[in-house]
Amino acid sequence: MKFQMTNQKLQLFSYSSLTDIVMLLLIFFLLTSQFVINTGVKVQLPGAKQNEQTVPSKLVVTIDLDGNIFVGSEGVSIDKLPGKLEEIKAVSNESMLIIRADKTVALDFVINVIDAAKGVGLEKFTIETEKLSY
Q1: Number of H helices, E strands in the chain
Q2: Domain enclosing residue 76, as ranges
Q3: What is the mean pLDDT of residues 61-76?
Q4: What is the sign, positive or negative, of the torsion defined by CA atoms of 37, 41, 42, 43?
Q5: CA-to-CA distance for 72 and 74, rounded, in angstroms?
Q6: Cα Rg, the chain, nearest whole Å
């Protein structure tokens, strides 16, 4: 049996494999862009029209409705807050603190958290807000 071999250029290119790769990349980027670091503490954040996306940080302090202070999801008192911030700062080399305070929390609580953070050498602070849609 004789096989005929020709060295001709391929007339038709199959885009199916290229389409599969592009679709997988699209799904990957859509899924990974939706991940947001949130602590387990539920708070109602104050609203702002000019809201910016916060940079993820390991130094997140949350103040809930009752005035309880959490570093990550671990509850701490205001007296032990500087030690906990110092410990996390030494491990992660973070220089910015994100404060997630409930919108009904007194400003005095937020000032106390900022004072504790300044005591351990943190100079950059961000107060997290929700984007208002009106």
Answers
A1: 3, 7
A2: 47-131
A3: 87
A4: negative
A5: 6
A6: 25
Locate tokens 């106390």: which residue?
Answer: 112
**What gap in Å lies between CA 123 and CA 44, rounded to an integer?**
25
What is the token pair recorded at 50?
């000019």
Number of structural domains in the chain: 1
Distance from C-alpha of 22 to C-alpha of 28, rounded to nearest angstrom? 10
| Burial of 106 per CB tally in 10 Å (0-12, 13-18, 19+) | exposed
Instruction: Give the count of beta carbons closer than 10 Å to the beta carbon of residue 55.
Output: 9
Percent above pLDDT 70 for the chain:
79
What pTM, to 2 d.p., does this model score?
0.61
What is residue 53's predicted lDDT score, i.e. its pLDDT?
Answer: 62
Question: Would the pLDDT of 70 be above 80?
Answer: yes
Examine residue 112 and state whether it is found in any structural domain, yes or no.
Answer: yes
